[in-house]
Amino acid sequence: MSAASIDRFLAAERRRLEVKGRNGTKPGTPLKQQIPVRMWAEWDDATHPGFLEIDLVSHDGGAARGEFAWTLDLVDILTGWTETVALPNKARKWVIEALDTQLARFPFPIRGIDSDNGSEFINHHLLTWCDSHPITFTRARAYHKNDGCYVEQKNWSVVRRFVGYLRYEGAEQVQWLNDLYATLRLYTHFFQPLQKAVAKERRGARTYRRYDQAQTPYQRVLALPDTVVSPAQKAVLTAQYASLNPAAIRRDLLRLQNRLWDPMPRETPHEFPL
Fold it and tell me: What residues does the Integrase catalytic domain cover (predicted)?
């Protein structure tokens, strides 16, 4: 029997043994009809900060069984300002509590949030919470991950890059994740520049993009008008930036990564690249 024939005869068995549920997202309810859809191209009109994409990142270690930690990732479209917080699970209670605490950490008022179609977001609790603040609530199209391209990018560059794909569970490891995120936010906001596409041109079969000058989220916030971010808030950020030591932040990140990835202390710590 040839290799192709073997694959054909085993196709059904292989489908039966495939790992299911790795994305951790369950469809939302008919409530979706009350929440407007926003596509990725519509962010081109985001000329003010405060419009966020949000997503949950699972830490199941490749086995989505039992209870494990999740990271709520919140990304501002205009400035790239990113806040992350670890949750013991993705219950609606923890998601709303995290939004209450994390939105206050942005240096500008929040105008809207955009999520995927998971039931942890598409529910009456979050819709009521948005109406009471008030915050515009929109959702991506089902099966179109590119509609959440900004937060999906940060899921890798901020979350996966620094905490990996291991399984984290229990109150202690959730606290370890949040300790790391408290230091990581200083690095990403003040010392990690990013570029934004400002133009796109198609020539034949190829697409050419032009990008602006690389700036950190902190620099992008300072460049906003005083009517959007107050001079007092800018002064607070400037004083915080002046007090930071990037070498000390790197050492803290290495120490926290070692504790998270290898709970047993070593005489010589691992070196993990930033």
Answer: 45-225
